[in-house]
Amino acid sequence: MITQNPVLVLNQNYQPLNICNVKRALALILLEKAESTVDGQELIKSPTQSFNIPIVIRLMSYIHKPIHPKKISRQGVLSRDKNTCQYCGMSSESLTLDHIIPKSRGGKHTWENVVAACIKCNHKKAGSTPQEAKMKLINKAKKPNTDSNYMIKGKTVKEWKPFLISV
Fold first, then answer.
1. Residue numbers in the chain where pLDDT is lower than 50
2. What is the structure's pLDDT at 138?
3. What was the pLDDT predicted at 134?
């Protein structure tokens, strides 16, 4: 459905901020909270008006992005790890969180110490470290990058490229 197509959202200063869908972008434009910066060829019609489908919009007022790091959460860890067990590589919707250094041994609940793990691997590792369980992490656990350009990477539309740095 065309109203679900991705639209790049720029801050007032043209800095990439987020991605929304066409429906949300048109709502922001009609409410005069944003303007279309790049339009596509396709039209969307209402009974009284026609609109070019926006590809890039710019907000009319500046949005201050929080500079504090993203708080760790189950959803955040699963997203960072792409819903994949970091020990065996299995993709699953029923993953658990594993503390690399177990909490019982002083391990903290931080981005650098928590990974997605399937139930089988989590039970195998249990209260030991990966080395003790003879298990190796596929990817090093780290804080997710909150830079807008990084979050948008891989989802780009060619018309977005002038607004993105090194994507």
1. 167
2. 97
3. 97
Q: Are residues 82 and 129 in the same domain?
A: yes
List Cβ neighbours of 104 (8 Å cut-off, separation of 6 or more).
127
- Which one, of 73, 71, 75, 80, lies nearest residue 139 by Cα? 80
Residue 44 pairs with which residues in a beta bridge? 51
Dihedral (CA of 139, 145, 151, 154) sign: negative
28: amino acid identity, one letter: L
How far apart are the C-alpha atoms of 38 and 9, rounded to whole Å? 11
Structural domain boundaries enclosing 152: 2-66+146-163
In whole angstroms, give the CA distance from residue 6 to residue 120.
Answer: 37
Determine the pLDDT at residue 161: 85
Same domain, 55 and 91: no
Q: For the chain, percent helix, then strand, then coil, each to nearest 5?
A: 25, 25, 50
pLDDT confidence of residue 55: 95
Burial (0-12, 13-18, 19+ Cβ within 10 Å), 76: middle
